[in-house]
Amino acid sequence: MKYFLTVIFLMMFTHVMSQEFISEGDFEVTISGTNAFGENHRIVVIEVWAEFNKDNAFHDWKNLKGVKYHRLDLATAPVIKKKYRVRMVPTILVFLDGSKELEYKAGLDLICPVTLAELNKDIEELSELLNFNLNKQLWIK
User: For the chain, which residues make up each domain, given as ranges?
Assistant: First the structure.
């Protein structure tokens, strides 16, 4: 029984730790908002970052409201880099149901291009649009 509980604990701990960072192989599933645990997040935020510029990364991710947040290391994601034209880090991409809706790209100074307040405001507007469209669909039926 102890062994079983230890395995369960390690699986949970690994799951929690792995939620922040994703790989290029996980990207499409991650932006769709669904996962193997049955969680469904319609709005997903991906920060494309690099180890050399970690001081300028988005540090307030725990304070984002109503979204799932992940990081993707630019050095390990050449396909994503090309597809989304990521040239500077950090770059923050916001997806709604798998479609990119918002992006914030660092300039030559490599400073995080958005504040927590700005990002939460934009996410709130995206959520309102999502709720409006959902209500509109219910009204049409």
Answer: 20-140
- The two tokens of residue 62 are 């725990």
> How far is C-alpha 126 from the chain's CA centre?
14
- The single residue listed with the structure tokens 């604990």 is 9
Mean pLDDT in runs of 10 for the chain (141 residues)? 54 46 93 70 93 94 91 96 96 94 96 96 90 57 51
d(CA 52, CA 66): 29
CB 110 within 8 A of CB 56: yes
Q: What does the alpha-carbon distance between residue 75 and residue 84 come to, in Å, rounded to a whole number?
A: 14
Topology annotation, domain 20-140? Glutaredoxin (3.40.30)
